[in-house]
């Protein structure tokens, strides 16, 4: 390979992390075009029993620094992000800047403040500031190497996100006593369920919009939350809802350990879409079965979150988990909460709930659809119809609209006011 077409390895050697970001972006762009680029990535993996090669860490640091360059075009930015995620996933590393100073980190309590299906949360201090330390639970039976790679892959996504309704994280810690930890700002108001129990008359409607905005942002970037439920929706200091724990369900699935296959659904069955539980809809046509989380399964979970927000309890709170599965296999869903209208659960909002928990994933609206409906309903201006999806027109409209309201046209369907709030696919 001559000097006019240097190898990817040679280009990586040229990178000085102290260089201007623009020069690093230029060099990385040349690396992408080099004929041996993919061979270089393979070489990073090395011996699984040995520490990651220094060149892999340098490449990850260079990619991360390049992402901070504001003048890079969208296509190049996305390719750099994909390269960083792939490198971190395949090697099991993160850019050096992700790691926080362990000497500045301190757990305040000896026991977790909260625990979930696959993580424990401690309250801590970092440089004197209150923080949340979420530790991914690691068992001796786990494929630790694979688990670490999956964790690194998702941390790159988390670090790249920026939205007021999505929790940002300060960095990571990974030590013998605190393996695979995510550190974020401490939310003193707790999760949405705890917050609403303390203030039962708080207006839920702005919180619904916050949740929909956060979920729509994630989906716009092809990020699936995977475990949307009340405990994973925090309330910030300004009483805004903030989504957290997105992507962690994918870590357990990607790890492919015996532990991961069970822990992925632990504690979340009540919010879990039927297809994730391999449940049929009772007709001759089965629901698609997929244990993988999808945007559509997120939309089902969103419907259950609405139930949670307006009842103060988890969906199907009066029955055990096994009973929930039986209910879903019978195509049954929670009843509309009594008295919830006074808390903001209008007929149009309830109509979106009924659409979101449809058994067939393609019959469910998108996050964009739901956000637009809720914003128009809550902020005024009338409510549009559900957007067409999957080649099927979802044309019967949410009840409770004012007569005479007209659709804004494509891509919204023509709508007709209905009295029951039930939705039918034509």
From TrEMBL:
InterPro entries: Kinase-like_dom_sf, Prot_kinase_dom, Ser-Thr/Tyr_kinase_cat_dom, Ser/Thr_kinase_AS, Ser/Thr_Kinases-Pseudokinases. Pfam families: PK_Tyr_Ser-Thr. Residues 107-378 form the Protein kinase domain. It comes from the Eukaryota. Gene3D superfamilies: Transferase(Phosphotransferase) domain 1. GO terms for molecular function: ATP binding; protein serine/threonine kinase activity. SUPFAM superfamilies: Protein kinase-like (PK-like). Keywords: Kinase, Transferase. This is Kinase-like domain-containing protein.
């Amino acid at each position: 390979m001559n000097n006019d077409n240097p190898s990817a390895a040679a280009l990586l050697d040229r990178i000085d992390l102290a260089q201007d970001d623009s020069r690093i972006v230029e060099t990385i762009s040349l690396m992408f075009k080099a004929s041996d680029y993919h061979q270089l990535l393979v070489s990073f993996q090395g011996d699984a029993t040995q520490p990651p090669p220094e060149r892999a860490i340098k490449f990850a640091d260079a990619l991360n620094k390049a992402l901070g360059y504001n003048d890079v075009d969208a296509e190049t930015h996305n390719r750099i992000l994909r390269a960083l995620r792939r490198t971190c996933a395949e090697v099991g590393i993160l850019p050096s800047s992700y790691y926080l100073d362990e000497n500045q980190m301190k757990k305040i309590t000896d026991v977790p403040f909260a625990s979930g299906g696959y993580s424990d949360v401690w309250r801590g201090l970092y440089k004197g500031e209150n923080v949340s330390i979420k530790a991914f639970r690691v068992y001796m039976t786990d494929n630790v190497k694979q688990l670490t790679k999956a964790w690194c892959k998702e941390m790159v996504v988390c670090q790249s996100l920026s939205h007021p309704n999505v929790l940002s994280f300060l960095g990571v810690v990974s030590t013998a006593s605190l393996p695979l930890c995510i550190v974020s700002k401490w939310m003193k108001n707790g999760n949405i369920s705890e917050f609403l129990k303390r203030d039962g008359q708080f207006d839920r409607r702005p919180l619904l919009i916050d949740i929909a905005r956060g979920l729509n942002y994630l989906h716009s970037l092809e990020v699936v939350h995977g475990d949307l439920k009340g405990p994973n929706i925090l309330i910030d200091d300004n009483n805004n809802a903030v989504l957290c724990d997105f992507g962690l369900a994918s870590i357990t699935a990607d790890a492919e350990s015996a532990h991961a296959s069970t822990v992925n659904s632990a504690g979340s069955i009540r919010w879990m879409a039927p297809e994730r539980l391999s449940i049929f809809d009772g007709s001759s046509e089965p629901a698609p079965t997929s244990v993988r989380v999808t945007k559509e399964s997120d939309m089902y979970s969103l419907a259950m979150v609405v139930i949670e927000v307006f009842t103060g309890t988890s969906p199907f709170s009066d029955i055990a988990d096994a009973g929930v599965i039986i209910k879903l296999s019978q195509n049954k869903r929670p009843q509309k909460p009594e008295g919830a209208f006074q808390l903001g659960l209008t007929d149009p909002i309830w109509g979106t709930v009924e659409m979101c928990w449809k058994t067939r994933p393609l019959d469910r609206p998108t996050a964009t659809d739901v956000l637009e409906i809720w914003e128009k309903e809550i902020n005024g201006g009338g409510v549009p119809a559900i957007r067409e999806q999957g080649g099927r027109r979802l044309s019967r409209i949410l009840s409770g609209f004012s007569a005479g309201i007209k659709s804004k046209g494509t891509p919204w369907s023509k709508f007709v006011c209905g009295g029951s709030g039930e939705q039918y696919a034509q």
